[in-house]
Amino acid sequence: MGIAALITWLLTAVGGFVLLGTWIAKGGARQPTTTHLPPPVVFGHFVLAVVGLVVWIVYLVVDSESLAWIAFALLVPVAVLGFTMLARWLPVYRDRTTTTQTAPAERHFPVGVVAGHGVFAVVTVVLVLLTALGVGGN
Question: Whose C-alpha in 14, 67, 125, 132 is 20 to 30 A from the C-alpha of 102?
Fold first, then answer.
């Protein structure tokens, strides 16, 4: 189950990189007054997710139960920040009256990538928790 969590975590990361790249390319980091996603939330989500992934990889190598719990603990604020960004993105997605030139950077997010990122993230959190609990072995 630990390897399955790694795979879903990596798939989540790919979607996250696409979203982060889109947000940066469309000016989210350069024009923080036009985005509904505060840069500290975006980058905090990214950094904590990467640190958690590194801890998870180390856990898989050394098989230390405490590392599994640390990775899970890191995923909790990652999930909270992710849901915060989703809640702030939904009104932007629904508001189709703004022109593309005046729209915030997150308006350019591909909906399928947002959905896939979210689904894989939820699956990852569940798999990491189950692995930390010792369900299914490693």
Answer: 14
